[in-house]
Amino acid sequence: MVCAAKHAFERLAPATGAPAPAPESSAAPTAPALTYRFALRHPQRTHAVIMVSAISYTEPLNDEDRRRLESGINRIIGSDFLYWAIENVAPDEFLALIGVPKDVQRTLSKEDASTVFRTLELMHPMSRRFPGILLDQTRHVPRECPLDQISAPAFVIHSRDDTLVPFSNGEHSATAIPAAGFLSLETGGHLLLGRSDEIRRRIDGFLAGRR
User: Could you report the per-residue pLDDT of 7-16, keeping only the tens digit for each?
Assistant: First the structure.
């Protein structure tokens, strides 16, 4: 599945007759793995690489971590009814599970709160996403992935209070990819809430320098 998606991504640029867009990755292991592979395999077609709250390495799940997933978030996202219930009864608990600390939730602007709840609503029906989520949980991105061979300009964005993808992933990407830019944020959680204007400005500036 990963290979099929990767090859589809590789065919995107020729199919449209345009250079490939800047690969951008976040969250689950599959998307960053595709970004890394594309940038490494097709440097001449990679305009830039942007990593947003993205995994750059994974550790194989041990029995305790697997039990935690099965008894926690997987039980919720594996059931349309349970997901609907927690979304409506205790959305703060679910948001905490997906990397948005409760102290961040308490300071959300109306715009950010609207974005969060619209995102939760768009995830219905969750059962259709579950097979892909399970697949992502079995993917492994080794620390030895040759990020140091990526030659395209790169920009990494990560928040220190991301409880879904630890900040160490952003540090690893920014250190391993040569001359990568790094926007390190103190707050915002996995979804970088409350920081959209700053992030948009920094990404625009990064891409403008590549034109």
Answer: 444 555 554 4
